[in-house]
User: What shape does this take?
Amino acid sequence: MSSVSTLLEDRGAAFAGYSFAFLDDMAKREIRRAILKGIAIPGHQVPFGSREMPIARGWGTGGLQLTLALVGGSDVIKVIDQGDDASVNAVNLRRLIAKTTGATETLDTAAATLIQTRHRIPEEVMREGQVLILQVPIPEPLRLVERSVAAARSMHAEMDYSRMWLALYEDIVRRGEVSAGAGYPVMVNGRFVMAPSPIPRWDIPKLDNARCLFLFGAGREKRIYVVPPFTKVEPLEFDDYPFDTEHFDGKACALSGVTDAYLVESPTEDGGSRWTASDTNYADKVLAGLEVDTKWKR
Amino acid sequence: MEALTESGIRPPDTAGEQPLLRVEGLTKHYQSASGSRIVACEDVTFDVYPGEVLGIVGESGSGKSTVLQCLFQDVIPTSGEAYLSSFLGGSRNIWDADRRERRHLRTHDMSMVYQNPRQGLNLMVTAGGNIAERLLAAEWRKVADIRAKASDYLSRTEVPLDRMDDFPAFFSGGMQQRVQIAKALANNPALVLLDELTTGLDVSVQAGVLDLVRDIQHRLGMTAIVVSHDLGVIRLLADRTLVMKDGHVVEAGLTDQILEDPQHPYTQLLVNCVTH
Assistant: This one.
């Protein structure tokens, strides 16, 4: 039996002893059924039997299982880690997926059919037929206000979100604003409050009425949930404290010069800092002089 | 023949008026560890009319708190029916309500002031936030409006407004109780349940809290059920009173009548114990 490392080294023997796409057929079937249920009930957390993966829990096992349950040999896959295609984790996941399926690897958002991502939604608009798979550490948006899983589930069932609203109220009283930076809670289809995974506020408006399919997978917590295309997704907000994204007034990406992207700060050798676009593929495309459509909302 | 109670509140004219709450045959049994049946309350029947304060008095273990807990759905009774006119027009037994309706009953139709403020308040949430919780459940979505309403209730209950954004965990017992009363008034519930609200407070603070409840009752005309082991509290607040012993109602009537002319031996004992 070949180890995973030899499997990754030798594409020719990739499938020896392993199922196509690593997961066994019953696991893939179960995950697909959970996805279908999730599509039918947008924002509802569907339990599934999370499998052991060749990466540690907390490193994207939920997203990876979704990807592997859906990917076919003709798919074009992209993996994003905090906006970056080139991080060690992104590269390893992309190679694992490609080598166990024969799928094509890409860095190009527009060319990909399946994109697995950690904590970012691409700046480039995704179109119909594309799937964005988000890795989720904590799928339960009520976790902070209700520790009991059973109680939280019945709160969802009864649409009892007053304690979630109370937490937002207390935040405003204490800090003058809702302090949630990443993973701002959203209402999906007017029914379920959902944790959008720790994407920045910048990405929240992209979830609303999008053309692509959003899948959320939490491997450690064993939950799958879905925002289908053309679904209403609204951040929770008070009438007099409206939701707002991050602002990067006057700042531009130091590499590509773009200003309409989520920027991240990094320290420089002289003790200062510089800002660059978190979405490296977007910055690269702009640098190459390509037209990129970034207007998610129409 | 219309007597004024000591609180100065005229007993409601109940002729031809529909009761706000109708309770019939409320019974709650528990099972002891040895399997024997423990009767918490048995066949309790009474009406509460709009604007009236009903007192329930009895010693500890008499079942008076069980009655309140059943009404507030903290405890589900073994048998019995209760109809609240604000809940589906009084057409449905509140103990047949599903979970969602039950929550509505607890956040809109009724409120409860517990003896221990820890039960009624979330001490990890600010005083204002505790009141906001009921308003948020009623879908208030404007922070400024919520804060205005919360300050209104807190000032009515004499909680200093500069403590509004502090945690009740750091309040005195009397002030916690006043926050709890403010919370109970939020959303203008049809019925307020007060369970031993002054027990555990020292005497001077007790007087202040009782004055407050009486004053609010006067101004808002709230309908309430007051449970207490203390006839003094009942005398101050209640228009009509039920006397409970061993799970049964042994006497019922106008509070003054019960105090002046107790019929049941237990009531006589109770009245004689009160130092005038």
Summary: The two ends of chain B are 25 Å apart (CA to CA).
